[in-house]
TrEMBL record:
Protein name as it appears in the record: 3-oxoacyl-[acyl-carrier-protein] synthase II
CDD domains membership: KAS_I_II
Keywords: Transferase
UniProt organism field: Prauserella marina
InterPro entries tied to this protein: Beta-ketoacyl_synthase, Ketoacyl_synth_C, Ketoacyl_synth_N, PKS_Beta-ketoAc_synthase_dom, Thiolase-like
Domain of life: Bacteria
Any one GO molecular function term: 3-oxoacyl-[acyl-carrier-protein] synthase activity
Transmembrane residue ranges: none
């Protein structure tokens, strides 16, 4: 049997300052950062010198607007992370038109794959300390915390709500987990082992321990800026000094094109290829020559049946760390040559919502799909003084209307991991 086309038919979001497709796109297109100043309870006392004080928090969120049928007795047993994930999944499921089609689905051919870098650290932190980190984190009843304490609960509880009896699992592989979830789901769909797969990335990293870990000299990836939170993350800029964390949930529905056609559903985009590799090099730093990333880009385009020049836009990992941005730019030069005017734009959306870790790959892909749908590139905000070693098009001058038919998303992670996903407008 020939491999089947895999398409994206639904998306859902619970992000800092933006819930749902339309609101997320408005923030991305306008380039409005949703980062804010973190309270002392999260940073730790008055905050240590040099510790990042900015982050993308979901301050106002009511799960009842998205899953009103969830009994309060259940909701009290679920963490904020679970409720955000269930809400994003419900949005994506409805966006795909599957709520009205659910009785026609084969439960055994419907699955859910989650992605989270750290799992429920917010719950574990407030449980070990005996109090909530701040007002945004209501306590979960300890007697019923078996769900709140498990990293896989968002996927399994989503499966129960959707009646999905196929493959249900959760990946915990840092920042490449979202891409790998797309790859895993695509393999099941392409080979005829599933009809519909729901993906959900979720992260709630705002606890003192996480900020200490990422601010440590060994990691050194969080920005030390103490100025306006909105300008903290500066991808590809000469003055970049790291990222700020973000929280929330991103969901996506994948299905075979045949299945979508059968129910007369027009897809957003096609997943053309996924590549996930390990550099087997430095545990915390990318290959700075760019050769490994360049090879991955070429593998991804080859697997998709594209030439590198067919790519209209690359949604970079763009963390605003010294090495990540430099390695991405060097890889671009190896793939496309010295004529930077012939390179596709390389952008980053992290300054808008922060770095969502295990959900970041899914967010990158979902944002890229939105750009395809609108035929408009979201800007890379805060890229004001472009680093001479990253001196190419980052869409730094505001949103741009242009042809976006084929695109790529890049992700990199601690542990020498790299991944790429190629997409094509449907």
């Amino acid at each position: 049997m020939e491999n089947q086309d895999v398409v994206i038919t639904g998306m859902g979001f619970v992000l800092p300052g933006a819930v749902g497709n339309d609101e997320v796109w408005r923030k991305l297109e306008a380039g409005v950062s949703q980062l804010s100043r973190l309270p002392d309870g999260i940073v730790g006392g008055q905050g240590e010198t040099g510790q990042c004080r900015a982050g993308g928090r979901v301050w106002e969120f009511d799960h009842r607007e998205h899953i009103p049928d969830l009994p309060d007795t259940f909701a009290k047993r679920y963490s904020r992370e679970i409720l955000m994930a269930l809400s994003a999944v419900e949005q994506a499921w409805s966006d795909a038109g599957l709520r009205d089609y659910q009785s026609e689905l084969c439960p055994e051919r419907t699955g859910v794959i989650g992605s989270s870098s750290r799992g429920p650290v917010e719950w574990w932190s407030q449980t070990s300390s005996g109090s909530a980190v701040d007002a945004a984190c209501p306590p979960v009843e300890i007697d019923h915390a078996v769900f709140a304490s498990l990293a896989g609960s968002p996927a399994t509880l989503s499966a129960i709500r959707l009646g999905a009896r196929g493959t249900v699992t959760t990946l915990s592989n840092a920042c490449v987990g979202g891409h790998q979830a797309i790859g895993f789901a695509s393999q099941l769909l392409e080979t005829g082992n599933a009809d519909v797969m729901v993906l959900v990335g979720h992260e709630t990293p705002f606890v003192p321990e996480m900020l200490q870990i990422y601010s440590s000299p060994t990691a050194g990836v969080l920005s030390r800026s103490d100025g306006d939170p909105a300008t903290t993350i500066k991808p590809y800029d000469r003055n970049r000094d790291g990222f700020a964390l973000g929280e929330g949930a991103v969901a996506m529905v994948l299905e075979t094109r045949e299945h979508a056609s059968r129910r007369k559903r027009e897809p957003y985009a096609r997943v053309c290829s996924t590549v996930s590799l390990n550099e087997a090099g430095h545990a915390t730093r990318m290959d700075l020559s760019g050769r490994f990333t360049a090879d991955m880009i070429l593998r991804a385009t080859d697997a998709a049946g594209f030439a590198p020049g067919d790519i209209d836009y690359i949604c970079g990992h763009g963390t605003a760390t010294r090495y990540n941005d430099l390695a991405e730019s060097r890889a671009m030069r190896l793939v496309y040559g010295d004529r930077v005017d012939r390179w596709p734009p390389l952008g980053s959306i992290k300054p808008v919502f922060g770095h969502l870790l295990g959900a970041s790959g899914l967010l990158n892909c979902a944002a890229t799909v939105q750009m395809m749908c609108h035929q408009r590139l979201a800007p890379t905000i805060n890229c004001v003084d472009v680093d001479p070693e990253c001196d190419h098009d980052h869409v730094q001058d505001g949103a741009r209307s242009t042809r976006v038919e084929r695109a790529m998303s890049l992700s990199f992670a601690i542990g020498s991991q790299s991944s790429a996903v190629t997409l094509e407008a449907a």
